[in-house]
Amino acid sequence: xxxxxxxxxxxxxxxxxxxxxxxxxxxxxxxxxxxxxxxxxxxxxxxxxxxxxxxxxxxxxxxxxxxxxxxxxxxxxxxxxxxxxxxxxxxxxxxxxxxxxxxxxxxxxxxx
Length: 112
Description:
single chain; 2 strands; extended; mainly alpha
């Protein structure tokens, strides 16, 4: 996880789902200046309480917006690209991103 965190990022928020929840990880993030927004998970045989359910919902809302973008890209063939050369791969991802943006813009215009 340490390799993924960008210290040059202007936001110190760390958003994650239930798979990343544990006390040592949250403690380490806080010690290193990050603001963890990690969803809680219940223990075996012990479901989470109402406060943790509300917290999970509050955290899931902004994450869902980003996850929908990755799901749309996955439906267009995913992030795996078969090409020769980095330039062609970058071009292919740029085209996929442009297609996503056009689809999103057309759906927003329909709503207006």
